[in-house]
Amino acid sequence: MRRSVIHLVAGLLLATAQPRTQGPTLVAPGATVERLATGFGFLEGPAADLEGNLYFSDIQSERIYRWTPDDGVTTFREATGRAHGIRFTLAGQLLICEMGNRRVTAIDTGGNTFILADELERRRFNSPDDLLGRSEGRCLFQRPTIWADDDKKMDGDHVYYISSDRTVIRRVADDLVRPNGIVGTMDGSRVYIADHGAGRTYVYRPANDGSLGDKRLFATQGADGMTVDEMGNVYLTGQDITIYDPNGAQVASIAVPEAPANLAFGGADGTTLFITARTSLYALAMTVTGQ
After folding, report:
1. How far is residue 210's CA from residue 236's CA, in Å, rounded to a whole number?
2. CATH classification of the domain holding 210
3. Tens-digit pLDDT profile for residues 55-77
4. Type and span of the H or E element at 34
5. From CA 36, how far away is CA 7, in angstroms rounded?
6. In a domain, 53, yes or no
């Protein structure tokens, strides 16, 4: 794998996280948003591996990058098919939404790549956007197709389930305008889906067969990306980052110099909040870890 170091930016930015919390403070005392690297096309992802190292995708350059404190940013993978959302499973597999290739793939711990899903009922997926890795299966998003001359595409933007043995692929949500963000709690009791097109975020109760039930409105805000911390707080990206408690009450917000696209917890102790925001990668020290 070729290593290519991106220009790093030293020092802190002027923009400072402005938490508005009740009870324990989520942002580490005195911490500010730090820009780790810049000069990218459009950053997405991100995801931390089991050691806390961060991986994130640049849609425009079709690359997945890796960030560590010692090496900074290096190239992990090229020609990614316009990789968008990525996630690590507890088994260490890296799951990738390849928008350009219209499929979801995985890289195992041995470096082998295989296709998880690329069609359903003999129709190609549109543009897989984001996904959630779970022990009993996986959910992935669809976005508006960019292949207008292709009549073998899905009929809308939906959420799909892939069983762990890849023998079952089916639609589990088809009543959203434009789903664009998904996250679940570690205990598997909740799945949150942001409907970016409707400006809403919903919470579901997932079943073992991958189906999503008990749909309820969680917040009157959509999002591009989202994550959850150990306390069950849900982080939604928009013009900044808005944090809601498990009951859907807004408890804090974090200002970012560029509009954030996505975010994930990582670092050696899991308390670093990494933020992919257009052309730059940012980090913020927190008092909580991710799930």
Report:
1. 23
2. 2.120.10.30
3. 999 999 999 999 999 999 999 99
4. strand 34-38
5. 9
6. yes
